[in-house]
Amino acid sequence: MPTSKDKNIIRELAKRVAEIAALPVQEEKRALWRGLNGLKPSRPMVMINQVCWNEFDNDNKLVNICEDNECRHYEEILRQKLFQWEHFPGDMVMESYVPVYKAIHNSGYGVSMEEETLSTDPSSYVVSHRYIDVLKDDNDLDKISVPKIVMDEAETARRMDVAHELFDGILEARPVGFETWMQLWDPIAMYKGVENALYALIDEPEFMHRMLKKLMHSFTGMLDQLEDMGLLIGTQSQNQIHCGGAYTSELPASGYNPDKPRCKDLWIAGLAQMLGTVSSSMYQEFELDYVNPIFERFGLVYYGCCEPLDDKLDIVTKIPNLRKVSMSPWTNAQRGAEGLGKNFVFSSKPNPAFLATDSFDEEHVRRELTAIKKACEQNGCPLEFILKDISTVRYDLARLERWGKIAMEVAMG
Questions:
Q1: Phi, psi (rounded to 5 degrees) for 167
Q2: Residue partners of 142: CB distance under 8 A and separation at least 6
Q3: How many Å is the Cα radius of gyration of the chain?
Q4: Local structure of residue 233 (DSSP, 8 states)
Q5: Choosing a second label site near 176 at 20 to 30 A (CA), which of 25, 104, 135, 205?
Q6: Per-domain boundaries in the chain
Q7: Using one digit for the tens of pLDDT, what is the confidence trace for 223-242?
Q8: How far is CA 383 from CA 21, 39, 276, 322, in A?
């Protein structure tokens, strides 16, 4: 169990989180997110996520001082929440619980990734990857298997005991299950390498179909186990979907049992970033025809990430249960807003590179966000700004603070 010193550190941080979580503005923000996700927005919403935490330790507010590793895990979560609330909150919601992840073991797909990496900043987790092709022929495909899911009840109970010791009387210690993503092509990129996989779509299409069928069989088998065992994340804990707010009045579905969440009670996010440059017909053939049956099982769907989808909305908007579509920095905002209209949320991903240049051009940021908002207003399209994938702000926290303030000004203007 935690030492008294570590426990005191955690509980003092937790008290500050609890005070903020109790503010009326938290429910106001939840209501705004529910309005957006219900396609009846009051205004565009703003979130900042996936930031370069390694660049923000100037005042030691992010420095962990607990000795126990488990305590340091919670300390890091609490410190980052408090730091974000102080410096770049946007429309974040501070919740009055701490997630305690169940000890769920996943055996994987039976294939091991091989890669080489390069780094420009040793303190950053952002590195470049060169993946080695480990799926070259049908013999390699035979290695792909259905993951075996095992719940370690004893370890989960131990984690809960520690969390209760740390947080009882201040924040709820909430057991949290597995949140799944529908992604075929990110794993393929890591198993084959991007260039190899794209060439194979042209040179070996039948082989790629066999690969996709094997991977889909494995993913479906994994999902079935998670659902049957009641190990999916609960609706009450799924507060974000792909870095934006997931609050909604439409989930869970009728008959929900919090002890055994079903796919139809939840959001799922899907993406196929590597296929951003293929034709619509190939996108349908090698992506949507495989993943749409999975999307049919879920309550709501968020689709896309960094791939430009504005030229594929005729097929993307046919995804079952679709509600939000990612509009990356490489999309045409006007075309995207026209294609989505009033029926889907335009999940804008403004360009994080603007925070990494030699000098920070605030007006450039304002023009980008204003143009996106204008395109959405002209088409009655619900809008959220999600700044993510922030590799660097050149160790200048003020840039991120200013971006957040500009985004809120545009959203509320």
A1: -115, -15
A2: none
A3: 22
A4: P
A5: 25
A6: 4-412
A7: 999 999 999 999 999 999 99
A8: 25, 9, 22, 15
